[in-house]
Give the backbone structure.
Amino acid sequence: MLSPELLGQDLDRFDCIIDARSPAEYALDHIPGAINCPVLNNEERATVGTLYKQESPFAAKKLGAALVAKNIANHLQEHFIHQPREWRPLVYCWRGGERSGAFAHILQRIGWKAQQLQGGYQGYRRQVIADLERWAPLAKFTVICGMTGSGKTRLLQALHGQTQVLDLEDLAAHRGSVLGGLPNQAQPSQKMFESRLWNALRQFKFHQTIYVESESKKVGCLHIPDALMDQIRQGNCVEIKADRSVRVDVLMQEYVHLELHG
């Protein structure tokens, strides 16, 4: 089993991250980059749970085993049948129990270098919270400040690929202002937002500068974790100034969808 404490450094060693939970669980939050291969779908999970409560654990396990075996077989045939012997997947479920255990066992018996995540999603979630608390004070932020429409986001985007950038608005799927909702794109859950933050931070070199746009505590309906917000507020500020006419032009370009749908 892989300890959640090693996820930050070892996640990229795996060729595939398999989330064996139901689609509903996966939609709320998952390890970044994971694909959903449920061993029980939403309806099957509910049926097995009802059987467990109303009839017996034994009856539920019989039905669950049959459904799990069928679904894993389908996933193997549809997604993994062409993978080479060296393929290295990581499998997890809700708490590192029977769902991911069954999946990982079959993959291992085939001959693949599969690992199961200890503690499953719950272990991962605890690690995300711990890592965000631990990493935030290490970050060396330079904060891009300025009035709405001054081009802060454009500067941040221009810096991508040249230096370290934490794009909070991109991770939150929101532009931060009162008009900041993106067209045809809902914001992620708070947990998913924190997963995206975790995934971004784990790839940074903390002795080097990280550029970030000045934001309030909330980006849309999402909260920036306290430890991260505190560290951002301590960063050096670079202020962008622009004439009102320039700001109006920028806002007209960035919020053109509001005019089209107004």
In short: The beta strands are 16-19, 35-36, 89-92, 115-116, 140-146, 164-166, 209-213, 218-219, 222-223, 236-240.
